[in-house]
Amino acid sequence: MGRPSGASGAVAGNVMRILAVSDLHLDAQHRQTLLNHAREADLVIVAGDLGQRRQGLAEYLGPMEGIAAKTIVVPGNNETEAELRAAIPATVLHGQTTVSNGMCVAGLGGAVPPLPPLPWGSFDLTEDEAAEQLRRAGPADILVSHSPPKGCGDWHSRRGNIGSEAILDYARRVQPKLILCGHVHDSWGWRGTIGTTRVANLGPVPVWFDTDDWEKGSCPA
Fold first, then answer.
1. Mean model confidence pLDDT for the chain
2. CA gap 139, 211 in Å, rounded
3. Is the pTM above the cut of 0.85?
């Protein structure tokens, strides 16, 4: 599925090198590890939860402005789309797509389905809201989603499978080549497939993915 964390060195040919993480949660060491390896990446993907309880985002992301031009990020449940856009000049996706090196990338943020009520105002979506955002985004080669699909990298030690039916449905219908997610800390590092779609719950340690064997699609008009 890609190079192990910490791998480096150029890759020949028309290969796009993707460095991906999730759930940094204001951790300075994980941020520095990401920055150390990002220079080798063609694309950096962050699958949400850079902040912590809707706080500290702008200060934390300041050192990441140097890689913002090649970074795609979706909001987690610890920050909103608007808060991300105000904090870093990266490509922020939520119900949208973008093209990077010919690869179409869609994004969906927030906790899906909603978490139990939290006093600090978690950014959550219902399944219907998530399905609508995914319809807006349309087909893509890669889906970056903060929440995992139902039954795939979504096992929580107290609540069981807490992933999203809407994301699972998107995976089955669209069959993107890759779904990158996070959110469920107990399942960081999980890898699996939905049909031909590879799914990875990332966690805060950077993971490499190379697109050497992919036939690139395109974003909808």
1. 90
2. 18
3. yes
